[in-house]
Structure formats: C-alpha cells, structure tokens
C-alpha cells in the first residue's frame, strides 16, 4: 500500500481531482503556524484548504515545531506536508462524512535544529499571517535569554525573535507588521501574547522603536475556537487505510461543526475571506460568543457528566441515546439556560441545536469520566456564573450537585487524586487539594443528614460561594439517588420539579 506523499499522488486510487490539482499547484507561503498538531491541522489548515479550493487565499503555511520533543514535523516532511482530514458527525439531522487530502502546509521546520531557517521566514515578502496553537501551557511567559544561535523554548520567545528579525530586515517599516491569530483556549489570547512579547523585548533590551512597532504595526487578534478534534484514529486506522487506499500517519479526525470568532482592530475580511468560502467565522467581539459557548456547550457538559455516569452510562453519545438522561440534558439547555442568555434569539437557538447534534455524534466517544476531571473547578467557571443571571436556581442544577456529591465518593485514595467506584466501574477523580480533602472528609460517614449536606454546601473555600440555600433540594435529590438509583431519581425529578420557591 503506497504512503501519502507528492510522488505517489497520481497513483493513489481514491484521490479526487480537486485535491490532486491543489497538491500540484504552485502557491506562495503566506502564513506561519506555530504548532502542527491535530487541532490546528483539522481546524486552521482545513479552513485554509477550503479557501484555496475556491481561489480565495492562494497560499500555504510553514509549520513550526513548538517544543523540542515534537514528533510531527518529521512525519509532515516525509509526507510533503500532506495529510487527510476526516470530518464525521451529524449536521442538520443527518450523518455527514467529508474526507479530503489537505495540502495547505508547504513545509515544516524544527527551530531547535535550525533557528535560522525559522528566522528567515521573517524576510519573506509574502508572509502576512501567523497562527498558533501551542495549548494553554504554551501561551505563557518564560524567563529566557535572547536567542543568539539556539531557539527559545517558549512560543512567545520564538515569536519575539521572529518579529525582531522582521523589524530589523524591513527597517521598522510600519507596513511590514504581521497579523497574529492565536488559537490557544485562553481568554484574551491575543492581548496576552502581545504583552508577553513586549515583556521579553524589554528584558532582552531590544530597541524602544521595536516595542512601538510591535504595539502599533502588528495586529494581535483575540479569538475563540470551537471544534472537537479527536485526532488520529488509532483504533480504526487499518479500516481507514483500506478505505483510502494509502497509508497516512497524520490522519486527523474531527467533527463537521466549527466556529471561529476573531476580534481585531483592523478590517481583515478581504485578506482572510473565510466567510466568502462559506466558513462559520465571525469578525466580532469574542466575549459574547465565549459566553454563549460556555453556557450552552461547556456548562451542560459539566452538569450532565455525573448524572449520566452514575446512571450507568459512559459517553455523551450514550447519554443522548438514553431517554431519561437525554431529557435532562434538553431541559438544562432549552429551558434552564437558553432563555436567560442575552444573545440574538435565532443565533442562540441555532447554537443550542448544534450542541445537541454534537452530543449525538456517533463518531466521537466523549467519555463522561474525562468530563468529570476537575469538575468542581469547572462548575465554578462554567455553571455558577449562570446563577448570577437568574433569580432562582433550576432543579436540574440542584440535581447535578446532588449527583456530583455521589460521584465524588472515594473508593481508594492516591497522591493528587482518588478513585471512585460505581457499579463495578472505577474512575479517577482529579481536582485541587481542597476539593479532594473536603469530599474525603464528607464521605467518612456512611449516613448523611440534611445538616451534613448544608455544611458541605456552605464551604466557601470549596465552591467560592455559599450554596447552603440549596440544601433542601440538593439533600432531597441526594437521598433520592441513594434510595432508588440515579436513573429513577432523574426521571422523578423531571416529572416532579420542585417549586422554585424552595430553591431561592
């Protein structure tokens, strides 16, 4: 079976003409991407590919290895930058599958082996854009020396060195600045990245004129990214190779849904015509969309995981196939969260519908136990802000708190986490030390009174607020789960919603 590379393209059995034409097309390098992992390739590179197919971008990117121990760059170079994207999911109520060979990456560079090759990119007259996805851990300040011959370890360090080469090579030309679009899941990521670059520039004693050029002549965008990308299909790779007719060590599987919100002080729509290519890109303020995503996607994830798990389910898809628990999820989204969001009604309803389809995706095995990692921290950042927008706390949230208490019951205690056990299934509970110790202490008793639950809910260092006003509801649901199991308790809760007066 042939491997995916340019030499074998004409011999591949299932390649379509559009992909083959694009692979052979001579296009300039117009962007740099720090990061070459699954997400960036199935997200930004996929978007660039869609624009290239319609002659709207007409350019390729150079992929930069972000860490010294990366393993993707050699694979990319061996495959001439080519890789397969496989998008699978439900869209408009129907299963969808879209497969294509992506040719948006021209080449890859390991800066730890050749820093100069990276810095030379700053001298290109064609490169205008810089994308990145180095994870939240990559978008941080690191104290390090100005790079003479060896690459900085941090992404901001490499970016600062690249910008300084651009500045010196173009003599500080105000027209020579880059448009920098970070995709890390960090709030105000563009502003943060710029601040770190400026800090490094000052520590490296670079000219004040360079700092002014960074601030005034480069565009740092804040962004919000959204697409689930499971990545390389290691469990089914043999089936895919048989179907495709070639070997590809860089297949990237993702869902069809995508959202990209870009907040920029400059008009970029003509330079990056994402929308013209039919892509779900918003040139707008990030915060409203971030709030929408957190409220309708992340918060329901956090509320449903414990209800689903202690009901005997393992994945989000199983939750959506279960009549009782899926009804719980729909009530959370459509009745308890959606009406309270100050967002365009049609758009928020459309997003909610897309969330249901994403939860139903048969191709993504989203483990409930994974969603449960650091769940108390997620409650505080994702769910509790919703309580500030409502006069009453919905029964579904009180029920989720009751199920969370059951989920956080330790079976065996280890350093930094404990293991839970439910119906023969062991699962890891990971959270901060205060959370773990609090629940270990709570579960030292076999029987719990309403006062015990009230005490737990009132611990501000646990919840960062006093939740004792929810004691009556939470305790009733806690005991109901104990008596009849989570599934029956969920059904009863849905049929007999407690009066809201009891939850004020």
TrEMBL record:
Cross-referenced Pfam families: Mannitol_dh, Mannitol_dh_C
Record protein name field: Altronate oxidoreductase
Species name: Halobacillus andaensis
Keyword Oxidoreductase among record annotations: yes
Residue ranges of every copy of the Mannitol dehydrogenase N-terminal domain listed in the record: 30-272
InterPro entries assigned: 6-PGluconate_DH-like_C_sf, 6PGD_dom2, Mannitol_DH, Mannitol_DH_C, Mannitol_DH_N, NAD(P)-bd_dom_sf
Biological process terms in GO annotation: D-galacturonate catabolic process; mannitol catabolic process
UniProt entry tagged with the keyword Transit peptide: no
Cellular-component GO terms for this entry: cytosol
Organism ancestry: Bacteria, Bacillati, Bacillota, Bacilli, Bacillales
């Amino acid at each position: 079976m042939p491997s995916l590379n340019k030499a074998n393209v004409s011999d591949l059995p299932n390649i379509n003409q559009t992909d083959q034409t694009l692979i052979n097309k001579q296009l300039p390098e117009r962007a740099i991407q720090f990061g070459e992992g699954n997400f960036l390739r199935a997200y930004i590179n996929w978007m660039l590919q869609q624009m290239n197919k319609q002659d709207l971008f007409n350019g390729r990117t150079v992929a930069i290895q972000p860490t010294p121990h990366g393993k993707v760059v050699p694979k990319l170079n061996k495959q001439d930058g080519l890789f397969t994207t496989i998008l699978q999911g439900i869209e408009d109520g129907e299963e969808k599958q879209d497969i294509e060979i992506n040719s948006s990456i021209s080449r890859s560079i390991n800066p730890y082996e050749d820093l100069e090759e990276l810095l030379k990119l700053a001298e290109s007259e064609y490169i205008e854009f810089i994308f990145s996805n180095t994870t939240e851990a990559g978008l941080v300040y690191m104290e390090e020396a100005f790079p003479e011959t060896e690459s900085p370890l941090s992404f901001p360090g490499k970016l600062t060195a690249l910008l300084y080469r651009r500045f010196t090579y173009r003599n500080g030309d105000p027209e020579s600045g880059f448009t920098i679009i970070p995709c890390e899941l960090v709030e105000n990521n563009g502003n943060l990245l710029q601040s770190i670059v400026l800090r490094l520039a000052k520590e490296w004693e670079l000219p004040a004129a360079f700092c002014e050029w960074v601030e005034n002549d480069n565009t740092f965008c804040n962004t919000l990214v959204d697409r689930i990308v499971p990545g390389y299909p290691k469990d089914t790779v043999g089936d895919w190779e048989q179907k495709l007719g070639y070997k590809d060590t860089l297949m990237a599987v993702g869902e069809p849904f995508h959202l990209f919100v870009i907040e920029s002080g400059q008009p970029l729509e003509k330079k990056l015509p994402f929308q013209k290519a039919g892509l779900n890109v918003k040139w707008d303020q990030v915060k409203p969309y971030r709030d929408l995503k957190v409220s309708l996607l992340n918060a329901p994830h956090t509320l449903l995981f414990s209800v689903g798990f202690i009901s005997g389910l393992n994945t989000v898809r199983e939750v959506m196939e279960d009549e009782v628990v899926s009804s719980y999820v729909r009530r959370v989204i459509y009745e308890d969260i959606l009406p309270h969001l100050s967002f365009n009604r049609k758009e928020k309803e459309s997003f909610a519908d897309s969330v249901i389809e994403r939860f139903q995706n048969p191709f993504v095995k989203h483990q409930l136990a994974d969603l449960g990692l650091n769940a108390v921290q997620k409650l505080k950042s994702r769910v509790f802000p919703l309580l500030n927008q409502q006069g009453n706390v919905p029964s579904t949230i009180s029920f989720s708190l009751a199920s969370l208490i059951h989920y956080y019951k330790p079976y065996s205690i280890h350093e930094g986490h404990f293991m839970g056990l439910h119906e023969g299934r062991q699962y890891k509970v990971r959270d901060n030390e205060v959370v773990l110790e609090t629940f270990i202490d709570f579960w030292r008793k076999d029987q719990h009174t309403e006062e015990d639950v009230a005490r737990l809910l009132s611990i501000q260092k646990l919840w960062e607020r006093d939740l004792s006003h929810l004691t009556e509801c939470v305790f009733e649901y806690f005991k109901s789960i104990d008596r009849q199991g989570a599934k029956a308790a969920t059904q009863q809760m849905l049929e007999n919603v407690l009066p809201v007066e009891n939850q004020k």
